[in-house]
Every structure is written in C-alpha cells, then in structure tokens.
UniProtKB/TrEMBL annotation:
Belongs to the methyltransferase superfamily. InterPro entries: Lys/N-term_MeTrsfase_sf (IPR051419), SAM-dependent_MTases_sf (IPR029063). PANTHER family: METHYLTRANSFERASE DOMAIN-CONTAINING PROTEIN, SAM-DEPENDENT METHYLTRANSFERASE SUPERFAMILY PROTEIN. Keywords: Methyltransferase, Transferase. Gene3D superfamilies: Vaccinia Virus protein VP39. The lineage of its organism: Eukaryota, Fungi, Dikarya, Ascomycota, Pezizomycotina. This is Methyltransferase domain-containing protein.
C-alpha cells in the first residue's frame, strides 16, 4: 500500500533565513506578481506627479525612491529612469545576498554609462552645487542596503546625513511577505504616558509606522499585493481590526490617533487583472482547451499625512 504523501510546510516568507537561502542558492531574476513593465507603468501613472512642475521640468531633488524588498527583480534597474540621478533610488532587502546580487547587476549594466557621465560631469549644467567628478560618481549609482523593515533603528538608518525623506516607496508584495509573520510585541508609551507598556502589533501595522518615519508629507507608498485586505488599519472603524484579543491595545491606540492610520491615508485601491499566459489542453487533445479563470492582484496607493 503506498504511503500517504507528507504535507509540505509553507515557506517562512517573514524569515531572513528563508530569503538568504533562496537568494544565495538561486540568483536568477524573479518578478513577483507583475512584470517590470507593468509595474513601471503603474508607478508613472500614480507616483510621479509631485516631481514634475507645470512646464514638465523635473525637480532635481525629487523623487527620492525607496524600493523595499527589491530581491532579484529587474525593477530596481528600471527605477533609475524615473529620477535625474540614480542615487535618488535606494533599494533595500532583508537578505544581504539579494543586495549584493542587485549591486553587481547594476555595475554590469551601467558601468559604461557611469564612465561617460563622469567624463563630462563638470560640464553638466543641470547639476546644482559642486560639479566635480567625485560628486558625479557618487550620484551615478543607486544606493543598496540590507535592512530589517520591522526594526525602527534599521529603517531610520536609511535617512542620510541630510535628513532627506522619501517621496515614493515601491512595495511589490513585500507587505505580503511581512504579513506572514507573527504579531510583534513592542514597548510603547502610547497608552501609558508615565512609562512604556508592551503592545502587540500586527507586522504590517508596524511596517506602516516605520515607513511613516522616513516618508515625506504627501509622499506615496505604492503597493502591489495579492491580498484584497492587506491594510485593514486604513479602513477599519473603532470596532474593527485584526482578529484576536491581542490587538485590543492597538485598536485603543488607533482611536486615540496614535495607530498607523494616523500617518497614512488610502488614496486609491484598485483591482489589477493578471494577463492570461496559458491554456490547459483537455485530455491532451489539440483544439480542446480550458481557460483559466481570471486572476486579480491589488494596487494600493497610500498617502503620507502631514502628522510628524
């Protein structure tokens, strides 16, 4: 009698070790949910209006882009075309292997462009301030960092010495991976002004708070997700929230104006139809096919409030 198949444990998408193992063993390009081209079109459609003036000229200081969970996606390389200087793009990931992979891909793809830019850097009339070759070299490459998005000090380290905040956050299913983790207990003074108190938070709520700390007022957090309900804190009323009594303190905080909903407004939520790519042949008979049902992903555009 054949043995029963053993059940497979779901991947630990919230674990650093999972991503290190994955990206160390397999560094081929992989795109989550949507193609790079489709993602770039979405970003251009909803995220760049703050960085172009009425005459269509791009502001040299915007947008500063934070690409979270960059993985081995080619999206990182395409983001360069949305800014005046590649250094305005900051790619981050939980896995150091993914960051090293991305940095090397950029070097291989753009070394010739960087050399050409450096050769004429001091003659670029669009460069404000010092125009030495060293400054041009520094701006010619994107930034790459290994970051734990659920650690506030780690996230705050992304803000440079100039204190500049990000205008755009690009999140291609990173919130989905983080949502797979368990609730996180933090020490907070929100409910106890006289001293810190432990609060259990859903990891996506904590992510929202941390990203708020490095996003400029009116900045956008563009999220492509497989979930129709990825950010319940944006929509819940006082009686709503994540399941479980351990979220009760977070709900109290939200009513008092200190939850993640204080720092983010939902500008847009839209369904994205995934292009059909395959047909299944019925019984191996040519000409007889069955069409897959339509699959949908979700686009969220969150706007950073002006609350500090």
């Amino acid at each position: 009698m054949p043995s029963r198949p053993t059940s497979m444990k779901a991947p630990s998408f919230s674990s650093r070790s999972y991503w290190d193992d994955r990206f160390t063993g397999d560094q081929i390009t992989f795109e989550w949910l949507l193609s790079v081209g489709d993602t770039i079109n979405i970003i251009k459609g909803v995220g760049l209006n703050r960085s172009v003036d009425e005459q269509g000229a791009r502001n040299d200081s915007e947008p500063r882009i934070l690409h979270i969970g960059c993985g081995t996606s080619d999206l990182s390389l395409r983001l360069r075309e949305l800014t005046r200087w590649p250094a305005q793009v900051h790619n981050v990931d939980f896995s150091e292997a993914a960051i090293e992979h991305g940095r090397m891909k950029e070097l291989q793809a753009f070394s010739a462009d960087a050399a050409s830019t450096n050769a004429v850097g001091s003659r670029d009339s669009g460069v404000s301030g010092p125009t030495s070759t060293e400054v041009v070299e520094e701006r010619s490459w994107m930034q790459w960092s290994t970051v734990d998005l659920l650690s506030l000090p780690s996230v705050q380290s992304l803000v440079g010495d100039d204190g500049g905040l990000y205008d755009l956050i690009i999140d291609k299913s990173t919130s989905d991976a983080i949502a797979c983790g368990e609730n996180i207990t933090i020490m907070s003074s929100w409910t106890q002004p006289d001293g810190p108190d432990p609060i259990s938070m859903h990891p996506v709520d904590l992510l929202a708070l941390h990203l708020a700390a490095v996003t400029a007022p009116d900045g956008r957090w563009i999220v492509i997700s497989y979930s129709e309900d990825r950010f319940p804190f944006l929509e819940r009323e006082d009686e709503q929230g994540h399941d479980g009594a351990e979220d009760s303190l977070l709900q109290v905080d939200s009513r008092r104006g200190f939850g993640p909903g204080r720092f983010w407004n939902l500008e847009r939520k839209a369904q994205i139809t995934v292009p059909a790519t395959e047909e299944a042949v019925v019984g191996g008979t040519p000409g007889q096919t069955v069409h897959w049902p339509e699959i949908y992903h979700w686009l969220y555009v969150l706007i950073r409030t002006k609350d500090p």
